[in-house]
UniProtKB/TrEMBL annotation:
It comes from Streptomyces decoyicus. This is Transketolase. It holds the Pfam family Transket_pyr. Residues 2-167 form the Transketolase-like pyrimidine-binding domain.
Length: 302
């Protein structure tokens, strides 16, 4: 199976052939995947070098000319480092584009903290009007990338990851999907967290919702899954900063009694490189850690 990043390069290269409005902007990272596309479309595949603020500025400028820019690098270089440019060159200018990240929260541990971005989605939440997709499989990434590329002038963030679920699910760029139903609570699994959540909740009487589009937050979907007749217990399992979506879940259930647990990447920096699986376990996001925390949370009400 190819990775999400490999699928991104192949799909976007095909989209450049199909849609003359699309342009790709890179900052050295990922250029190999677009080598052929750059030869075929030198005016629409631009590498600005290791200049991430310029990456965003060029993308915003292309959008002002009427193009639909797709910008790509590691999440820490795409959202965190040039955040002022994201805020001004897209938001303030009132133009749209597609930011496609790699690296996630800790996909490349040996790259160190400079290449980790657990706070990217929370940071974008400080801005208005961003759609955020978090695919859990390369097939889902392709669907959501195509959706983002054709989304008019919307501002879209597609968060790719080295983590992937074993099988794809049907996604359409909108709300949550119900995979299991139960009366003991609701667990929302975001993107690549799904397989771990399904393993962690095996045998538990809970509803499992799968989320690959997290902004806008599917308030209606969460309300429909929560027990309207009693107190709702909700667990959010996200592959980025713990608690990133708790505000949206609380707002969705503000007229109902409910308890909420936000699971994700902790704020404490892990200063040993380790491996991806070790980072998952350290943050309690492996099946064992999730099982303990979810069952403990649900048992507390009883």
């Amino acid at each position: 199976m190819d990775t999400m990043r490999e699928r991104f390069a192949s799909v976007t290269s095909r989209l450049l052939e199909e849609d003359p409005r699309l342009a790709v902007v890179l900052a050295d990272i990922g250029t190999a995947g677009f080598a052929e596309a750059a030869q075929r479309h030198p005016d629409r595949v631009v590498n600005v070098g290791i200049r991430e603020q310029l990456l965003i500025g060029v993308g915003g400028g292309l959008a002002l000319t009427g193009l639909r820019p797709i910008l790509h690098t590691f999440a820490s270089f795409l959202v965190e480092r040039p955040f002022e440019q994201v805020k001004l060159d897209f938001g303030h200018q009132g133009v749209g584009g597609v930011l496609v990240s790699a690296g996630g929260s800790y996909d490349w541990p040996s790259g160190g903290f400079t290449h980790m971005s657990p706070g990217d989605v929370a940071l974008l939440d400080t801005l208005d009007g961003w759609t955020v997709h978090v695919p859990g499989h390369p097939d889902e990434a392709e669907t959501l990338l195509r959706h983002a590329a054709s989304a008019g002038d919307d501002k879209v963030y597609v968060r790719l990851s080295a983590q992937a679920n074993r099988a794809p699910r049907a996604v359409d760029g909108t709300g949550f999907r119900t995979l299991r139903e139960g009366r003991g609570g609701v667990v929302v699994a975001v993107g690549p967290m799904l397989d771990h959540v399904l393993a962690a909740t095996e045998g538990l009487e809970v509803t499992v919702l799968y989320a690959t589009t997290v902004r806008p937050f599917d308030a209606a979907g969460l309300r429909a899954a929560a027990d309207p007749a009693g107190s709702a217990d909700v667990v959010l399992v996200e592959p980025y900063l713990a608690g990133t979506s708790t505000r949206f879940a609380n707002e969705a259930l503000e007229d109902r009694p409910h308890r909420l647990l936000g699971l994700g990447v902790g704020r404490q920096e892990l200063r040993r490189y380790g491996q991806l699986d070790e980072h998952l376990a350290a943050h309690g996001l492996d099946p064992h850690g999730l099982r303990e925390r979810i069952t403990g949370f649900l048992a507390a009400r009883r």
